[in-house]
Specification:
Elements (H helix, E strand, L loop, with lengths): L13 E3 H6 L2 E6 L2 H11 L3 E14 L2 E15 L6 E15 L27 E2 L4 E3 H12 L22 H9 L6
Parallel strand pairs: 5-6
Antiparallel strand pairs: 1-7, 2-3, 3-4, 4-5
């Protein structure tokens, strides 16, 4: 399993928490060449030709709700043919974040005991760190999850090498006697 990638600082596109809590902030993001190079290196890609996103950040409880769509063109090496190829990826982001100490996070006296997990429920909110939300980091994190860890060029198929057949008992005896094997 691959090590998790720290996406902070790879593509900084910050929005202030206060600005997002006052009303919905809309941003169109496009990674420049330097950011794409940093991201490609961190994610183990051959190249990142394009990374764009349309994001919003708005108020949610005493925190923020972040939503948007992104698209990218990534270059990888095929795991079968070892040839480079490019593919289009896209994704959708929907995240909620709360400040530390928020009453909405619950706490030690929030009922305690058992924890009910519903796989169909929304993810729990992120914890805000500081006074800014890095929209670029959310996009890079989602991109990292969309990348195929075992890339395969379209149309490439793996064919196992032919296995040698079972040797005949006479070929085994011939080898033992030092003679030429007859298959």
């Amino acid at each position: 399993m691959a090590e998790p990638v720290d996406v902070r600082g790879l593509w900084n596109e910050a929005v202030s928490v206060n600005e997002a809590q006052r009303g919905t902030v809309k941003r169109k993001l496009e990674a420049d060449a330097a950011a794409r190079e940093r991201i490609a290196k961190a994610l183990g890609l051959d190249s990142l030709e394009r990374l764009e996103a349309a994001m919003t950040a708005g108020p949610w409880l005493d925190g923020v709700e972040i939503a948007g769509r992104w698209s990218a063109r990534v270059g990888q090496t095929c795991g079968v043919t070892l040839e480079p190829f490019e593919s289009e990826l896209e994704g959708e982001i929907h995240v909620r974040a709360l400040p530390p100490g928020s009453a909405a996070l619950g706490g030690p006296d929030s009922g305690g005991g058992e924890l009910d997990l519903d796989p169909e429920a929304d993810d729990p909110p992120d914890l805000l760190e500081g006074k800014e939300i890095d929209l670029g980091a959310y996009v890079v994190e989602d991109l990292s999850l969309a990348i195929d860890p075992f890339p395969r060029k379209p149309g490439a198929s793996f064919e196992a090498p032919a296995q040698p057949g079972e040797p005949s008992p006479f070929a085994v005896l011939a080898k033992l006697k030092g003679g030429a094997p007859d298959a």
